[in-house]
């Protein structure tokens, strides 16, 4: 694809560039995202106590290669270098998460000042470099003490989250203008408590639905806390991982599988937050697992407190079908190996492998899924601005003999997906920006360090950072506010 300039004399461009076919709206944000446990390391420092991911990653067999986040990308000790790197790449926004157990080690009670100080230093460094911080309060690292008290299936955890968020927002709210309550509650609930491939590693479908509800309640309570603390005009957000769900045929049984998985993946989270109600079909589909008696009368009013922004994490579409009589189960859902499904009450649905190109996660590369998703969200949930808070790909990156990391597949993935965002904007969808996942290679949860998602390569033996070709490509896109004409990066 090439950029078509509407102006003729490019040397005489005014400061505000003419609109181009590949161009993004003025003010579009070009960010990079990370999460605390995936990059920070320093798990025993300055009063931090264990989260469920510390416990889980040290459980034999839980994580590939017995990897853990004890050191990770050592970001805790390298914020100056990492922020400078972002500034050099022209990244305008940085999305990171707060480790709850640095700020409130046991999940309740007083703040740990040393933990807050770390995030103060990070925020200060970002602001000094002109980078806008976006905070995620919860990216999956529940204090172990709260898991020991029952975890997310326990209603009290939602109130503990609101208390913690109040501490964090009081300390950082003056300088952090965008606050995201939760990252991907679908994963916390269903990978954590149903398939058990994520911490805390429980396989209890009924508990996973209670966990989903209490995560949503935590979000709603958190929105209330943020509104009380943050200055007017700050942005309150929630990040979900909604998916485009497709079937291989138009047969009613397959279309019904789409409806059911769309319910569990998307509407179970979007509807309570943005419409104030649980989807009736999902409640009905799951009665064999739970009676939903953990939902109290006023909860939906709490959960549907208005938010300012919906964060969308997207990687790949899903392909599902009804299992035909006598056929073996197909479970290529890309969420790790477990004999338990992450999808409650959906054991009769197959998760198929779409054909075509794949990333190292074995996820299909298909930007049409992102375009379709954004158009659908804009249509079904009108009025809420969106931000792509994660999108990216893992590939087998390595440092070549010249010291360079060439990752043309990632560049092509980013081009395809940014193009999908651009075209959704052209179709009238309100998307404000894009965060690439991820700034750095990092601890990819159950896959440990075997999957490299960074636009910056990390040599974990030396902690040396090497911007990949994709980082240079992304920097060029950010600087121009449009997709570069070429994928090739000059020597
Ligand atoms: C998620 C998380 C990230 C992952 C990324 C790649 O979406 O799973 O937010 O922490 O690392 O998505 O799998």
What's the short version?
The chain has 15 helices and 13 strands. By secondary structure, it is of the alpha/beta class.
List the helices and strands and how they pair.
Layout: E1 29-33, H1 36-39, H2 52-57, H3 79-89, E2 93-97, H4 100-103, H5 113-128, E3 132-138, H6 144-148, H7 156-172, E4 178-183, H8 185-193, H9 205-229, E5 235-240, E6 245-246, H10 252-275, H11 280-285, H12 299-303, E7 309-313, E8 318-322, E9 349-352, H13 367-380, E10 386-390, H14 408-426, E11 431-437, E12 456-459, E13 464-467, H15 469-480
Parallel strand pairs: 1-2, 1-11, 2-3, 3-4, 4-5, 5-7, 6-8, 7-10, 10-11
Antiparallel strand pairs: 8-9, 12-13
The chain binds D-gluconic acid (GCO).
The site of D-gluconic acid (GCO) has 11 residues, from loops.
Would you write up a description of this structure?
Helix 14 (408-426) runs parallel beside helix 15. 53% of the residues are buried. The radius of gyration is 22 Å and the shape is globular. It has 15 helices and 13 strands. 36% of the residues lie in helices and 13% in strands. Strand 12 and strand 13 (464-467) form a beta hairpin. Strands 1-2-3-4-5-7-10-11 form an eight-stranded parallel barrel, surrounded by six helices. It has 491 residues and is of the alpha/beta class. It has helices spanning 36-39, 52-57, 79-89, 100-103, 113-128, 144-148, 156-172, 185-193, 205-229, 252-275, 280-285, 299-303, 367-380, 408-426, 469-480, and strands at residues 29-33, 93-97, 132-138, 178-183, 235-240, 245-246, 309-313, 318-322, 349-352, 386-390, 431-437, 456-459, 464-467. The model is unreliable at 1-20 (pLDDT under 50). D-gluconic acid (GCO) is lined by residues 35, 38, 183-184, 187, 241, 313, 390, 437, 444, 453.
């Amino acid at each position: 694809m090439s950029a078509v300039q509407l102006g003729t004399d490019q040397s005489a461009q005014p400061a505000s560039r003419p609109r181009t076919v590949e161009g993004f709206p003025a003010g579009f944000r070009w960010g990079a995202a990370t999460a605390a446990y995936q990059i920070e390391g320093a798990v025993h420092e300055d009063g931090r106590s264990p989260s469920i991911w510390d416990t889980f990653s040290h459980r034999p067999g839980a994580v590939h290669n017995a990897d853990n986040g004890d050191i990770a990308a050592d970001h805790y000790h390298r914020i100056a270098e990492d922020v400078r790197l972002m500034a050099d790449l022209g990244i305008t926004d940085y999305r990171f998460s707060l480790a709850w157990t640095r700020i409130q080690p046991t999940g309740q009670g007083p703040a740990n000042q040393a933990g807050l100080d770390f995030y103060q230093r990070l925020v200060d460094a970002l602001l000094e470099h002109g980078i806008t911080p976006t905070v995620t309060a919860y990216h999956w690292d529940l204090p172990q003490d709260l898991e020991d008290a029952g975890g997310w299936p326990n209603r009290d955890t939602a109130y503990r989250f609101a208390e913690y968020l109040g501490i964090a927002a009081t300390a950082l709210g003056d300088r952090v203008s965008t606050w995201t309550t939760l990252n991907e509650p679908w994963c916390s609930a269903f990978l954590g408590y149903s398939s058990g491939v994520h911490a805390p590693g429980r396989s209890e479908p009924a508990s996973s639905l209670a966990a989903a509800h209490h995560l949503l309640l935590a979000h709603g309570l958190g929105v209330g806390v943020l509104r009380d603390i943050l200055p007017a005009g700050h942005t309150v957000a929630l990040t979900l991982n909604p998916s485009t769900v497709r079937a291989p045929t138009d047969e009613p049984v397959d279309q019904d599988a789409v409806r059911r998985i769309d319910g569990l993946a998307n509407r179970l989270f979007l509807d309570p937050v943005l419409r104030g109600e649980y989807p009736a079909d999902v409640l009905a589909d799951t009665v064999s697992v739970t009676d939903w008696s953990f939902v109290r009368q006023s909860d939906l009013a709490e959960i549907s407190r208005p938010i300012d922004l919906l964060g969308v994490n997207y990687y790949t579409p899903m392909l599902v079908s009804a299992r035909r009589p006598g056929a073996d189960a197909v479970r290529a859902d890309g969420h790790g190996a477990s004999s338990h499904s992450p999808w409650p009450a959906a054991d009769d649905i197959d998760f198929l492998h779409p054909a075509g190109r794949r990333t190292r996660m074995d996820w299909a590369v298909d930007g049409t899924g992102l375009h379709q998703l954004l158009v659908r969200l804009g249509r079904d949930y009108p009025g809420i601005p969106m931000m792509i808070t994660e999108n990216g790909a893992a590939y087998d990156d390595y440092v070549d003999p010249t010291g360079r990391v060439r990752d043309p597949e990632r560049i092509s993935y980013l081009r395809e997906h940014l193009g999908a965002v651009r075209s959704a904007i052209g179709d009238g969808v309100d998307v404000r920006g894009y965060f690439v996942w991820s700034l750095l290679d990092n601890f990819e949860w159950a896959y440990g360090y075997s999957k490299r998602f960074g636009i910056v390569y990390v040599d974990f033996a030396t902690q040396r950072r090497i911007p990949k070709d994709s980082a240079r490509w992304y920097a060029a896109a950010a600087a121009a506010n449009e997709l570069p004409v070429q994928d090739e990066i000059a020597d």
